[in-house]
Amino acid sequence: MEHGADNLQGFLDRLTDRSVLHDNEKAAILDLPTRVAQVEIHRDFVSLGETTDHVCLVVDGIVGRFGQNATGGRQITALHIAGDMADLHSVVQPRAGSALQALTPTTLLRVPHAALREVAARYPAVAEALWRDCAVDAAILAQWVTNVGRRSARTRLAHLLCEIATRYRAEGQREASSFAFAATQSQLADATGMTTVHVNRTLKSLQGIASLSNRTIDIQDWDALSDIGEFDAGYLQVDIKPADRIRIAAPA
Amino acid sequence: MEHGADNLQGFLDRLTDRSVLHDNEKAAILDLPTRVAQVEIHRDFVSLGETTDHVCLVVDGIVGRFGQNATGGRQITALHIAGDMADLHSVVQPRAGSALQALTPTTLLRVPHAALREVAARYPAVAEALWRDCAVDAAILAQWVTNVGRRSARTRLAHLLCEIATRYRAEGQREASSFAFAATQSQLADATGMTTVHVNRTLKSLQGIASLSNRTIDIQDWDALSDIGEFDAGYLQVDIKPADRIRIAAPA
DNA sequence: CGACATGTTGAAGGGGATCAATGGTGGTGG
DNA sequence: CCACCACCATTGATCCCCTTCAACATGTCG
Q1: What is residue A243's three-state secondary structure?
Q2: Within 13 Å of residue A4, how many CA atoms lie on the same side as its CB?
Q3: A90, A166, A173, B91: which has the fewest Cβ within 10 Å?
Q4: What's the Å distance between residue B68 CA and nucleotide C3 C1'?
Q5: Residue A203 CB closer than 7 angstroms to strand D?
Q6: Considering only CA atoms, which of A34, A40, A72, A26 is closest in space to residue A54?
């Protein structure tokens, strides 16, 4: 067990984008004990029903949270990228309600529940920040329900691409962009409740607006894409001005 | 502003079904200031984007959390019944990511954020219990994504009925039952991403297994219904044995 | 009793699934 | 360095679940 301050920094950044933490609280987070783990592609590193004693921070790669139906059809219910705590909820609810799988070769940082709980207990503001991140997670899930339930395939896919792009560059972005994203069409299908075939065709229909190739997402026309995707970044709680960040806990 | 201990009891029960709270912590919750509100049917009492300063506890009736697409199609992303805090997440994230609407005439208890935050700050175990409830909420949302994304209409509807039944009687139930649930077919449609027409036909296909009429859900054959719905109640975190409830916070 | 919401039924059309095959492409080992 | 293989992308043809549109029935509440 080592200290993974370098990698924890990404997680801390995520937290402080939305929450107010003081220096001692930040230090406590960077001081968390960690263990690095490499996960090969397509491997479940948390299984359904398993009780875990640590959380998994994504350092590199993409992680999917999976649900499945009786016939084996898999549905991705959440995507997690570098800086995300993929199962933060497990701190208060250690029995996994869904499996976690590496969608690409992935590097994780495992942080023991015990250590995180200790920090959360000592610093209420940290507990609050973690809770807040879970709330954002839930807001994203609610968006996905709407996405899958009430939008056409084209809109669905566009919305997902917008969400991913926005989360990658945690700044408001209203422009074209291009970034590494090594998911396959079949994984996009699992995330949008479509079939691979239809993802392929829908992606084609977005030519000139956005594309996925060479493990890279290219967004050529952000306005058009966010329009098609009916996308409004508000729910991602990105770009919260420092003055608007809330802190319930007293100064430590 | 009065004390609504009677009605807060339902909320406290919900919390203590999953979390361990000591007597002083329970007392602090029952002591929260509240304001009763009657909400007429079909009225939004929280709008999208609004910043609230209180949470809404459902005392009686049914509340839906709504998302919507560009053409006005509405999707219910969560259902809340008596005892549920419909927007608990607003404690840490006061800007509403979705609207809340009364699906039936509803009685609410409004609890000021300030008061709840004060209790949460003084009693870390309370903050933990609230956080845990948000985590359960998120687990339900993940199920809904799977439900809407990868299940047939029949399965979807059966799954929803199973979830509602299980949440109403927060005990493991493997049997027929009948309970008041005044939602319309059109609301079930919004919750499952179907059309009213198809809900009507699908409901008919469940004749003898389950039915919705006279504002009442009747489940005649639980085994068949949970089978069709591919339902496993685990994610609802109902029926957690006292010994299995987790408490991070130290004894107060 | 009248009005409006909710439930019911029929007919027709389409969006996306399904099935099936072929074409790329990167990775691996001989 | 090439041959092979596994995985991924692409395309066509067909089917069907569910939507859409439209009408009518039923219920409920003032």
Answers
A1: helix
A2: 23
A3: A173
A4: 29
A5: yes
A6: A34
Q: Out of A124, A138, A150, whose CB is closest to B75? A: A150
| Of the candidate ranges A160-174, A198-212, B113-127, B201-215, the one whose mean pLDDT is the lowest | A160-174
Question: CA at B148, C1' at D20: how many angstroms apart?
Answer: 20
Nearest-CA neighbor of A144 among B67, B200, B5? B67
Residues 6+ apart with CB under 8 A from B204: none
Average pLDDT score over residue span A121-132:
95
Nucleotides of C strand lying within 7 Å of any protein CB atom: 5-11, 15-20, 26
Is the predicted pLDDT of residue A2 greater than 60, yes or no? no
Q: What is the DSSP string of A215-231?
A: TEEEES-HHHHHHHTT-
* Strand intervals (E) in chain B: 2-3, 33-39, 44-46, 54-60, 63-68, 74-80, 99-102, 106-112, 177-180, 210-213, 216-219
Q: For A30-46, what is the mean pLDDT? A: 95
Mind listing the pLDDT tens digit for each residue in B22-40?
999 999 999 999 999 999 9
Opening angle at CA B125, ends B122 and B129, nearest 5: 120
Question: Which pLDDT tens digit goes with each residue over B72-100?
Answer: 899 999 999 999 999 999 999 999 999 99
Per this entry, what is the length of chain A? Answer: 252
pTM of model > 0.85 = yes
Contact A59/A107 with Cβ under 8 angstroms?
A: yes
Phi, psi dihedrals of residue B145, rounded to the nearest 5°: -60, -45
